[in-house]
Specification:
Helices cover about 45% and strands about 15% of the residues. By secondary structure, it is an alpha+beta fold. The protein has two domains: about 130 residues, 3-Layer(aba) Sandwich (D-Maltodextrin-Binding Protein, domain 2); about 140 residues, D-Maltodextrin-Binding Protein, domain 2 (3-Layer(aba) Sandwich). The strands form three sheets. It has a four-stranded antiparallel beta sheet with strand order 1-9-4-10. It has a four-stranded mixed beta sheet with strand order 6-7-5-8, sandwiched between helices. A two-stranded antiparallel sheet has the order 2-3. A hairpin with a 2-residue loop joins β2 and β3. α7 crosses α8 and α15 packs antiparallel against α16.
């Protein structure tokens, strides 16, 4: 941060989490690429990644790699009980209860997700908001434009824990803790990111060949959408070599480099055409399915105040999940704090 504030020429290109781009842009740390990057350069990327690279109508980075929240499920267990992937909250709960009752295995958990107090929990809650037809920020920037719907979504997550559909230890779970339990064959469902696929299908995995992918469920059919994640490449405003820096960013985000990334790393490209590439699909047959899930994904709120939003929300959301605060009260108190904080930034 010291180098960025001082416009240090010590580095030229930055890898940015998708939620950082607006904050870095507003701080004056990024080179505005709007007049340097043509619209046709952005067209090959998923629209949600372009949205995350854009703030105040200007382009501040190029999409590099992408993530999406999705639902993993045990194909063998669902098939055994004549079930398809759940599309709604009610179907998910019903399937967990049906399978656990039939298996009679006390070690088999139902639905695992990330409920620890950190950014991963916020992502899970945002997906629940979207699944219930609401959002954190309205089009006009209003916080919790539909507080009742937001409270319903939080109540649903709390009920997963209280009813046993999800184990109580989910409130301490991050991506890896939940992933390891599912990968050891100790859960029916898991909400996580695409990197998990390589691990559950690796030689020696307890669930190899017995895992499927689906969208995260919604309150009603078709309402579920996973959150996007991933990284963008931006250029330091203090660079002494803007043209060379942009050439590097163009190369690293180009088709050739993203193809190499998809081949040799557990990272997924932002260029949509690569998900239909025959050579890549031969190596990873899940690519077309992941493409569809990514196309339906939504970015977290694209705002310079995202870190403020997340850190303010985390204790309130966590208090609901562990049963210390009613959902409506948590939403009201978080809304009051955020309204106050955001007013000072306008």
């Amino acid at each position: 941060m010291i180098n960025l504030e001082g416009r240090s020429p010590g580095f030229d290109v930055m890898m940015l989490d998708v939620i950082w781009v607006p904050e870095f842009a507003r701080a004056g740390w990024l080179l505005d690429l709007t007049d340097r990057v043509r619209p046709e350069e952005l067209a090959p990327h998923f629209a949600s990644t372009v949205a995350a690279a854009t703030w105040a109508g200007r382009v501040w980075g190029l999409p590099w790699n992408m993530n999406v929240g999705l639902l993993y499920y045990r194909t063998d267990l669902l098939a055994k009980y004549g079930l398809g992937p759940p599309e709604t909250w009610d179907e998910l709960a019903y399937q967990v209860r049906t399978i656990r009752a039939g298996e009679r295995d006390p070690r088999l958990e139902g639905y695992l997700w990330q409920g620890k107090q950190y950014e991963g929990m916020v992502v899970n809650v945002l997906e629940a908001f979207w699944a219930n037809g609401t959002r954190l920020l309205g089009e006009d920037g209003a916080v919790f434009p539909e507080p009742a719907r937001a409270a319903e979504a939080l109540a649903y997550l709390r009920d997963l824990l209280a009813s046993g559909v999800s184990p109580r230890w989910v409130t301490a779970a991050d991506e890896e803790l939940s992933r390891r339990a599912f990968g050891d064959g100790r859960a029916v469902f898991l909400r996580n990111w695409p990197y998990v696929l390589d691990l559950v299908e690796a030689p020696g995995s307890a669930v190899r060949g017995r895992v499927g992918l689906a969208p995260v469920p919604g309150r009603v059919r078709g309402a579920g959408a996973g959150s996007t994640g991933g990284s963008h490449l931006g250029i330091s405003r203090g660079t002494r070599h803007p043209d060379l820096a942009l050439a590097l960013v163009r190369f690293l985000t180009g088709e050739r480099a993203q193809r190499a990334m998809a081949t040799g790393a557990a990272l997924y490209p932002t260029r949509t055409a690569l998900y239909r590439d025959p050579a890549l699909v031969a190596r990873n047959p899940w690519l077309p399915r992941i493409h569809d899930l990514m196309r339906a994904a939504r970015p977290r709120p694209v705002t310079p105040s995202y870190l403020l939003l997340s850190t303010t929300l985390q204790p309130e959301l966590s208090a609901v999940l562990v049963g210390l605060k009613p959902p409506a009260r948590a939403i009201a108190e978080a809304r009051r704090r955020l309204d106050y904080f955001l007013a000072s930034r306008r």
